[in-house]
Give the backbone structure.
Amino acid sequence: MGCRVAVAAVIEPVTAAEPRALSVLWREGDWLAVHKPAGWLVHRTGLDAGETRFVVQTLRDQLGRHVHPVHRLDKGTSGVLLMALSPAAARELSLQFEQRQVHKRYLAMVRGWPPASCSVDHALRPDDAPPDAPPQSALTHLRRLATWELPVPVDRYPSTRVALVEACPETGRRHQIRRHLKHLAHPIIGDATHGKGAHNRGWAERLGLQRLWLHAAELRLRHPVDGRELSVRSDPRDAALNADWCHLLSQPWDWTPSAPAPAPQPAPGRAR
């Protein structure tokens, strides 16, 4: 089935307002999950000394309590971030990540049209490791959800193609999804490190927004007290949380039969 074609003139910019407070998706006992906006750091770091938006400090001021991150998301990635109110509580959930008991589901917009589904089993060496350090095993499952083509030349290509991809990493290596998609020659749009500048600039101009198009949509894990399954979501169709993704999803994508175009969901994602 051919893609429906849209011209850049129909794409209006979206303005994502900076939140005054972080949205809490789930809270129970000493555990909670928040929606991390794109462009926010999880905590202060000397590697990005000019940044002023930090999840840990903002949430601490918001709740009036010390908070501890259970896992990490890249600065450019939006979506579900687990936090805890004590080091012991953080450790309880961190163990599930270490033991690969957490199911992670991401949404990404990538360059080109990748296979309908595939698994990338490609070991990765940590970014800060010495050249002779052994690579670590890394596995990501990918599924193509939709495609889109614009009759606009970019780089050496006569048209511009992108796809929406669901990514489910089994391991948790740094930048794993970004590096695995680059390994497939389908880097994430907006990825300044692993993508190509011409494509990133072109889509930033067309969408009116510069960001890494990677979103942590859902985490499924065991409740730390009674063991029941929790599903914590930051729905990319929720306009209150993800105006940029709502804008992107409203474009004329050609959705695969197994992944029909999503309907807008006004209510924020919640644990269930």
Remarks:
- Residues 1-14, 265-272 have pLDDT under 50 and may be disordered.
- Residues 20-255 form a domain with the Pseudouridine synthase fold (CATH 3.30.2350.10).
- The chain has one domain: 20-255.
- The helical segments are 55-63, 87-98, 176-183, 197-207, 243-249.
